[in-house]
TrEMBL record:
Region (Disordered): 1-34
PANTHER family listed in its UniProt record: DEOXYRIBODIPYRIMIDINE PHOTO-LYASE, DEOXYRIBODIPYRIMIDINE PHOTOLYASE
Protein name (database record): Deoxyribodipyrimidine photo-lyase
Catalytic activity reported: cyclobutadipyrimidine (in DNA) = 2 pyrimidine residues (in DNA)
One GO-annotated biological process of the protein: photoreactive repair
One Pfam family linked to the record: DNA_photolyase
Residues annotated as domain Photolyase/cryptochrome alpha/beta: 75-207
Enzyme Commission number(s) of this protein: 4.1.99.3
Cofactor(s) the record lists: FAD
UniProt cross-references to NCBIfam families, sorted A to Z: phr2 (TIGR00591)
Length: 507
C-alpha cells in the first residue's frame, strides 16, 4: 500500500500546506460566512484539493490481516464504518478514498447494523441511525455508494466484499471488546487475500502510537500525547466527489428500524441533541461562541451551562474531536485557560480512557482495578452501609438523597448527566449497594442505558475511576470506600447551589 505520489510533489505540497494551514488557523471565520459548515468546508479545500495531495500520516493505519497487499485487479475498496459515522474530518474515510483513487476503483461505504448492541435503547439507536442517514446523504452527494447491511459484519461483509470484488476493507478503531470481536470474527470468514486495515479516526494521536502500554494515570500519558500533537493535530483535506460510475441507491431505513430488538422501549429520544454531523458542528460553534469563555472556571458547576455538550456527537463519531480541538484552539489568545482545560478533557482524559480499555481487557470489572484499590475495597466489603437501595429504586430515582435523585432524573430525561455529578452519582452507588462489584455493574448499566454517550471508553473509565480508583490515588481511609476518593452532599453544597439543581429536576 505504498504511496504513489512522487517525493518532490510531496515536499512542494507540504510547504504550501504549512502556509495555507497558518492562514486557515488565523482565519477564525473572518470572511463573514455565518454558516459554520460551509466555513469549515472552505477551510478543508484550502488544505489540499484531495487526499491525493495530502501527506497522509500512515502511523494512523495498521493492517490487521495476514494479507497486507491490495490486489491490483480488484474492483472496489470498502470502508466499513464501526465507530466514526461521518464523511468529512474522518481519517478512515480519507484513507479509504486514497486507496480507491490509487487503485482506480470505486469506494463503497457500509455499516453493519446488529439488532442488539450492549442493551442499547431507542434513544441511542435513533441517534445512530439518523446520523447514518446523514452519512448516506453526504456519500451520495459525493457519488459514493453507502450501504446499510443488516447483521453482524462476519455474516454480511464477506458476501458484500465478494460481490464487489473488494481489494481491501478499511475500518475504524475502537478499544472495546465487542468491536474487536467483530473484527476477529470477520477475519475468520473473509477471503484471505483481502487485507483489513484499521485507522484510528477517533483519537488525535492514534491509541497505539500515544503509548505502547497501559498508563497509570493522566500524569504518565500527558507528556507523551502533547509531544505528538505537532505531528497529529493537523487540518483535514476534503473527501472529493468519486470519479467512478456506481449504482447509488437509498437504503431501507424502516426495515433497519424493524430489525432491532430493543428490550426497553420506554427510553425515548431527547429534544436537545439533534443527531448528525451538521448538528454536531452547530453545537461546537455554539460552545466556542457562548460557553467556552467560562469552561475553565465554571465547568464543575452543574447549574451553569458551560460544558461543550459534545459527548453524544463524539461518541457516535458524528463529530471529530480533532475538528473540535482545531476550532476551540482558535480562541487560545482570548480564553487561554478554558482552551487548555478543554484540551485536557477532550484529548488527555479521553485518550487516557482509550488507553485503559485498549490495554486492559477487564476495563469494566473490579478485576481491572489497580491492586491497591482491590485490596482496600475488599477490606471494606463487609462494612455496614447507611442504606441499601435496589437497582430498581436507583433507576427510578427513589433514594433519600435529593441531589442524587435530581442527577438521575437529568440523565433519564435528557440523556446526559452533568460531568461533575456523574462522579458523585457513581460514588453514592458504591455507598448504597452490597458490594463494589454490584455498584460497578449498576453504574455501568444505568450510565449505558440512559446516557446518549454511554457504552464509551470514557464511561467505563468514569465508573472505574469513581468506584475503583482507576487513574486516581489513594485517599484517607474511611468506611465502605477504604482509600477510594469520597464525595458527599455537604461537599457538593460547598461547590454549588444544590437546591437550584434539585428544583430544576423535580420528580
Ligand atoms: C461515572 C462517570 C460516567 C461517565 N460516563 C461517560 C460516558 O458514558 N461517556 C462519555 O463520553 N463520558 C463519560 N464520562 C466522562 C465525562 O463525564 C463526560 O465525557 C462529560 O460529562 C461529557 O459532557 P461534555 O461533552 O459536555 O463534556 P466537556 O466537559 O465539554 O468535555 C469535552 C469532552 O472531553 C471528554 N471528557 C470530559 N471529561 C472526561 C473525563 N472525565 N474522562 C474522559 N473524557 C472526558 C469527553 O469526550 C467530552 O465530550 C463519565 C464520567 C463519570 C465520572
Amino acid at each position: 500500500m505504498s504511496q504513489s505520489n512522487a517525493k518532490r510533489r510531496k515536499v512542494e505540497h507540504r510547504q504550501s500546506a504549512v502556509k495555507v494551514k497558518q492562514e486557515v488557523c488565523d482565519e477564525n471565520d473572518s470572511d463573514g460566512d455565518n454558516d459554520p459548515c460551509s466555513a469549515i468546508r472552505k477551510s478543508r479545500s484550502l488544505i489540499a484539493r484531495s487526499i491525493n495531495e495530502f501527506n497522509f500520516n500512515k502511523k494512523r493505519v495498521r493492517v490487521l490481516s495476514d494479507e497486507s497487499e491490495v490486489c491490483e485487479d480488484c474492483k472496489s475498496i470498502i470502508y466499513w464504518i464501526t465507530r466514526d459515522a461521518r464523511v468529512e474530518d474522518n481519517w478512515s474515510m480519507l484513507y479509504a478514498q486514497r486507496l480507491s483513487l490509487k487503485f482506480n476503483v470505486p469506494l463503497y461505504v457500509c455499516f453493519c447494523l446488529v439488532p442488539k448492541f450492549l442493551n442499547a435503547t431507542k434513544r441511542q439507536y435513533n441517534f445512530l441511525l439518523k446520523g447514518l442517514q446523514e452519512v448516506e446523504r453526504d456519500c451520495h452527494n459525493l457519488n459514493i455508494p453507502f450501504r446499510l447491511l443488516i447483521g453482524e459484519a462476519s455474516q454480511v461483509l464477506p458476501l458484500f466484499a465478494k460481490q464487489h470484488d473488494a481489494g481491501a476493507i478499511v475500518t475504524d478503531f475502537s478499544p472495546l471488546r465487542i468491536k474487536r470481536d467483530w473484527i476477529e470474527n470477520l477475519k475468520v470468514k473473509l477471503h484471505k487475500n483481502i487485507p483489513i486495515c484499521q485507522v484510528d479516526a477517533h483519537n488525535i494521536v492514534p491509541c497505539w502510537v500515544a503509548s505502547p502500554k497501559l498508563e497509570y494515570g493522566a500524569r504518565t500519558i500527558r507528556k507523551k500525547i502533547h509531544d505528538k500533537l505537532a505531528e497529529f493535530l493537523t487540518h483535514f483535506p476534503p473527501v472529493i466527489r468519486s470519479p467512478f460510475e456506481c449504482e447509488i441507491k437509498s437504503n431501507n431505513w424502516d426495515a433497519a428500524l424493524k430489525s432491532l430488538q430493543i428490550d426497553d422501549e420506554t427510553v425515548d429520544d431527547v429534544k436537545w441533541a439533534v443527531p448528525g454531523t451538521e448538528a454536531g458542528i452547530r453545537m461546537l460553534i455554539s460552545f466556542c461562541n457562548e460557553r467556552l469563555k467560562d469552561y475553565a472556571s465554571k465547568r464543575n458547576n452543574p447549574n451553569y451551562n458551560c460544558l461543550s455538550n459534545l459527548s453524544p456527537w463524539f461518541h457516535f463519531g458524528h463529530l471529530s474531536v480533532q475538528r473540535a480541538i482545531l476550532e476551540v484552539k482558535k480562541y487560545s489568545n482570548k480564553y487561554k485557560e478554558s482552551v487548555d482545560a478543554f484540551i485536557e478533557e477532550a484529548i488527555i482524559r479521553r485518550e487516557l480512557a482509550e488507553n485503559f480499555c485498549y490495554y486492559n481487557d477487564k476495563y469494566d470489572s473490579l478485576e481491572g482495578a489497580w491492586d491497591w484499590a482491590k485490596i482496600t475495597l475488599k477490606a471494606h466489603e463487609k462494612d455496614k452501609r447507611p442504606y441499601i437501595f435496589s437497582k430498581e429504586q436507583l433507576e427510578k430515582a427513589q433514594t433519600l438523597d435529593p441531589l442524587w435523585n435530581a442527577a438521575q432524573r437529568q440523565m433519564l430525561r435528557e440523556g446526559k448527566m452533568h460531568g461533575f455529578l456523574r462522579m458523585y452519582w457513581a460514588k453514592k452507588i458504591l455507598e448504597w449497594t452490597k458490594s463494589p462489584e454490584e455498584a460497578l455493574e449498576i453504574a455501568i448499566f444505568l450510565n449505558d442505558k440512559y446516557n446518549l454517550d454511554g457504552r464509551d471508553p470514557n464511561g467505563y473509565v468514569g465508573c472505574m475511576w469513581s468506584i475503583c480508583g482507576v487513574h486516581d490515588q489513594g485517599w484517607a481511609e474511611r468506611p465502605i470506600f477504604g482509600k477510594i476518593r469520597y464525595m458527599n452532599y455537604e461537599g457538593c453544597k460547598r461547590k454549588f447551589d444544590v437546591s437550584e439543581f434539585e428544583n430544576k429536576y423535580k420528580p
